[in-house]
Write a structure and sequence with these properties.
By secondary structure, this protein is mainly beta. The protein contains one helix and six strands, in the order βαβββββ. The two termini are 20 Å apart.
């Protein structure tokens, strides 16, 4: 779990932030054989409710390849903020994850 707050992003980040971190998954193939997945999720830190939510827009890259993006919601539309399975985009060993967030 990576918190989108200092030190992962600068203290001055308010409505836009880019974070980069490394994810070491030496047992990824074993997990896949067991039927396990790795998901990208976001939740609110402003309260204690367990509620999946995405920022206004987001770009998610693994190993310099775009995995998914979250476009801004269209007016008068409710966007379904569901987790994203990223297992297929990861490889065993070290992975570099880059996330650009705009809220």
């Amino acid at each position: 779990m990576v918190l989108v707050q200092h030190p992962a992003v600068p203290k001055t980040a308010r409505q836009q932030a880019t974070l980069k971190f490394h994810l070491n998954l030496p047992k990824l193939q074993k997990w896949r054989k067991l039927g396990h997945n790795v998901e990208a999720r976001m939740c609110l830190l402003t309260n204690y409710d367990c509620h999946q939510t995405w920022p206004t827009s987001l770009d998610f890259n693994v190993n310099k390849r775009k995995v998914f993006d979250i476009p801004p919601p269209t007016p008068l539309h409710v966007r379904r903020d569901v987790p994203h399975n990223i297992s297929a985009n990861l490889h065993s060993g070290m992975n570099t994850v880059e996330v650009e967030i705009r809220d």
